[in-house]
Amino acid sequence: MAGPNRIDRVERPRLYEQVVERLLDHVIQDRLETGDRLPPERDLADSLGVSRATVAQALVALEVLGVIDVQHGSGAVLRYRPSSAVVLRGLREHADRLPDIVDARSAVETKIAALAAARRTPEDLSAIEHALALMAQDIAGGGRGLEGDELFHAAVTAAAHSSVLARMMTEISGLVRETRIESLSQQGRPERSLESHRTIVDAIRDREPERAARAMAEHIELVSDVAVLRPE
C-alpha cells in the first residue's frame, strides 16, 4: 500500500515581499502608468507601517526585476505594470539563482583579474582607472556607483585579453547586473566596494596575478552579502 503523499511546508512571505505586493496594489489602484513616480521612500514607510530599510529592500527587488528605475535624487519611476503573481515568482527565482551567480563570478572573475595583472597594457590600466574614478565621483555625489562599477569590471575583463572569458562574462552579464543592483543598494556598500576595487587595481597595476586574483575573490565575497539571502 502506498504511503501518504508528502505535504510541503508552507512558506511565509518575507516582509519585503509583502511590501512589494502592496506597492503593486498601489500601482494598480492609483492607475499609475509608465514614467509615473512612486511616493518617496519615507512616505511609503509611514503609510505601510514598516521601516525605511524594508521599503528600500522592496524597491531594490522591483528594480532588479526591471519594474522600476531608481535614480539618485529622482526617486522610483515605473517602467511597466506587471501582475503581483509574476513579480513574486520573479523574486523567488532571483533569490534562488543568486548563489549560482556568485559561484560563477568567483570562478570566472578571479581568473580574469589574474590575467589582467599579467597582460594589461598601459591603455588597459587607464581604462580601469577611469572607470574607478567615475564610480568614486558618483558615490561622492550620493549615488550608488552602478555605472562605474559595471565599467570597472568590463575594463578588467578587457585587460585580461581572453576572448573566451569575455564571452562568458557577456553571457552572464544580465545575471551579474542583478547582483550589482542588489549589492550596491546595501547601506555603506558602495564605499566598501570602491575600496575593494582600489585593492584590485593596485594588484593589476603592480602586475601581481596572484594578488589580483585574491583581491577579486575577496571583492566577490563582499558584494555577495545581500539582504535577500539573509534569514529574517
Principal-axis shape: elongated
Output the number of helix runs: 10
State the CATH architecture of the largest domain.
Up-down Bundle
Largest sheet: 2 strands, antiparallel
Q: What average pLDDT do the residues reach?
A: 88
Tell me the CATH topology of the largest domain.
Four Helix Bundle (Hemerythrin (Met), subunit A)
Which structural category fits the helices and strands? mainly alpha
Placed side by side, the strands forming the largest sheet appear as 1-2
Our measurement of the CA-to-CA distance between the termini, rounded to an integer number of angstroms, reads: 41 Å
| CATH C-level class of the largest domain | Mainly Alpha
DSSP, total strands = 2
CATH superfamily heading of the largest domain = GntR ligand-binding domain-like
Portion of residues within helices: 55-70%
Instruction: State which percent range the strand residues make up.
Output: under 5%
Q: Give Rg in angstroms.
A: 20 Å
Sequence of secondary-structure elements: HHHEEHHHHHHH
- The stretches of 5 or more residues where confidence is low (pLDDT under 50) are none
**Domain module count:** 2
What do you see in this structure?
The chain has 10 helices and 2 strands, in the order αααββααααααα. The protein is 68% helix and 3% strand. It folds into 2 domains: 13-81, Arc Repressor Mutant, subunit A (Orthogonal Bundle); 93-227, Four Helix Bundle (Hemerythrin (Met), subunit A). The protein has a two-stranded antiparallel ribbon. With 232 residues, it is mainly α. Residues 13-81 form the HTH gntR-type domain. GO terms for molecular function: DNA binding; DNA-binding transcription factor activity. Keywords: DNA-binding, Transcription, Transcription regulation.
